[in-house]
Amino acid sequence: MRLYDYEISGSCYKVRLLLSMLNLPYEKVAVDFYPGRAHRRPEFLRINPLGQIPVLADEEVVLRDAQAILLYLAARYDASATWYPADPATQGRIAMWLAFAGGELMQISAVRLHDMLMGYEEIDAVAARSAACKALAVLDQHLAECEMRGRQWIAAAHPTIADIACFAYPALCHDGGIDRSVYHNVNRWLRRVRALPGFIVMPGIPAYA
Amino acid sequence: MTKTTDPIALREWIVIGAITDVQQGVPYRTQVLGQEIVCLRDGDAFEVREAGSDLQPQRQVQVRTRYGHVWICFAEVPRPMIEVREFDDPRRRMITWGGVYVRTSPQRLVENFLDMGHFPFVHTGILGAEPVTEIRDYKVEVRAEDAEIRATECMFYQPRASMAADIGRDTSYIYRTSGPFVVVLYKTAEEEGEFDNIGMLVQPLDEEHCRVFGYTLLLEADTTDTEALHFQQTVFLQDRLILEQQTPRRIPLYEKNEIPARADAASIGYRRWLRAVGMQFGVLPQQAKEGASQ
């Protein structure tokens, strides 16, 4: 199994995190995303025409999009069948939060790229930061309602790939100058994810938080 | 902010980008010491001017290319640039890290670069690992004549000192700061008896915002450029998170609220030099003594 990877990417981290929690061996192919912009070169566009990382290649299966990869890994390799359970209602909720992770929460990624690296000046950081905070508020409210029903996780009574997908960018929001101290439910849930067996860190998501 | 008036900052050569960052015929706009500037490239010729509030080009400033980067200086008589002989070594290849924005002062960045004490806690499993947290004594020399602070005989146990390292080892370091904004280090390479050379070049946008460039001069034959680059970026972005949490962002040179330890000898030397030359840019202003106004 090969992961086209960039250490600094929150989206690649989602995949590395689940691979670690499932204890699956894989090979990393380092993509020079910055400053080399190798993901926009013809060689990489042949692998993913959208020019985005991560990409997972597992024998004949080649997948782009972190959320799609999480779904595939859980469905194929999770013997416990808890990360993506068979129950239709849970699957529906997971799909909903995977879309949120790849959609609204990516505003945090936009602000982070804008504030951290060169070449992202065209991003409207004020608008993105405001949208990111709205997304965090939605997640916070959802987690509050979960807790009131005695549930600690986003889509089920146990962690699922929805938790993995939604974890990366809220955890990285300091990189984009977003203060998440007011989102108490999000912060408590982030700590629960950190305590899961197989948890790993990345730059911006340190072990000591 | 408008352009600083601090003569110590103004006389420095300051990096504004890697040479490859500046495209032919495309105005390259950025900020240095509070001043908006625009850089134009025509082949290998670069021209840099200050830009007014209407972004129109005004006064021309000195520009030169060296060490893979574009440097500018506002003063007519710049302080000489640091000499790094390793750039002449044909066996070495240079990797530029790519600019990274950090919300802090240039001095906080330099101090962090000089500090071995944070290795086990911030770069866990790479540049350090608990419980080996002790800093052994090292030598510090402040060379006023060329504005250089040298820390030598630094030794630290590192689990994975470079991309090519597969076992932990004691790593030897030499640090050289040159003026307030540039610091290079030499560290034990995987090749017997050799040193890797790594430099951090700070572009102060204003007193509390910087863009950081860096290079690695690599000997390692079995490491790809991308692997070496990602190693450096990983380390630097671990630092960035810490640096952005330090308050105040400007360096407190005259306060007693940050207590240095013996292990901080390099940064003590750097702070002493900043005080001696009377640096103001990026420095927390000296507070009036308590009771002085009475």
Write structural notes for this entry.
The complex is a heterodimer of chains A (209) and B (294). Chain A has 209 residues and is an alpha+beta fold. Chain A has 8 helices and 4 strands. In chain A, helix 1 links the parallel strand 1 and strand 2. The longest helix of chain A has 24 residues, at 125-148. In chain B, the strands form 2 sheets. In chain B, strands 7, 8, 9, 10, 11, 12, 13 and 14 form an 8-stranded antiparallel β-sheet that branches. In chain B, strands 1-6-5-4-3-2 form a 6-stranded antiparallel β-sheet, with no helix packed on it.
Query: Using DSSP, what is the number of strands of chain A?
Result: 4
Write the H/E string of chain B, N to C.
HEEEEEEEEHHEEEEEEHH
Oligomer: heterodimer
Q: Classify the secondary structure makeup of chain A into a structural class.
A: alpha+beta
Could you describe the largest sheet of chain B, including whether it forms a barrel? 8 strands, antiparallel
Give unreliable regions of chain A as ranges: none
Largest interface: A-B, 22 and 31 residues
Give the terminus-to-terminus CA distance of chain A: 31 Å
Radius of gyration of chain B: 19 Å
How many helices of chain A in DSSP terms?
Answer: 8
Distance between the termini of chain B: 33 Å
Helicity range of chain A: 40-55%
Round the mean pLDDT of chain B to the nearest integer and report it.
Answer: 91
Strand content of chain A: 5-15%
The class by helix and strand makeup of chain B works out as alpha+beta
Shape of chain A: globular
Q: Within the largest sheet of chain A, what's the order of strands?
A: 2-1-3-4
